[in-house]
Amino acid sequence: MDLQYIFTSLDGRINRAKWWAGVVILGIISIVLGVLIEVIFGTGFFGGLLATLVSLALFFPSYAVCAKRFQDRDKPGKMALYGLVPSLIASLLTAWGLTGTPDQLNGLGWICVLVNLGVGLWFLIELGILKGTPGSNQYGGDPLAALT
């Protein structure tokens, strides 16, 4: 599996297995870095700044993975931005403590939870469960054809 292609290129198509692998890798990186930042620096200004930098650093690889999967479904890769941008904004608001505490969310916190839940369900169904377009499409050849 070519991880550089999966995380840095917006061209072509990937199948569900590669999308899942990319999502799991990005999720593990995000969780590990998030826990390290919170344990070492806390949730103050510097911890929030580092959490912001991690979110921004992981945005493009997330976009690349999701864009290629949308393209496998014969949809423009830019559709991934419809979900990733609101999720990025929600994570930044949370990193800066504007959504309340984990125990007591404010109104903005609940909106962020609902946005992330909606995007997560949409991406789970659209990218993680539904099959890609069989055969070639405008974004390239069928990624499963190379496996058979």
TrEMBL record:
Q: Give the record's GO CC terms.
A: plasma membrane
Spans through the membrane: 20-41, 47-67, 79-99, 105-125
Keyword Transmembrane included in the entry's annotation: yes
What is the top-level taxon of the source organism?
Bacteria
Which terms are listed as keywords in the entry?
Answer: Membrane, Transmembrane, Transmembrane helix
InterPro entries attached here?
A: DUF805
Q: What's this protein's name?
A: DUF805 domain-containing protein
Q: Which organism is it from?
A: Methyloceanibacter methanicus
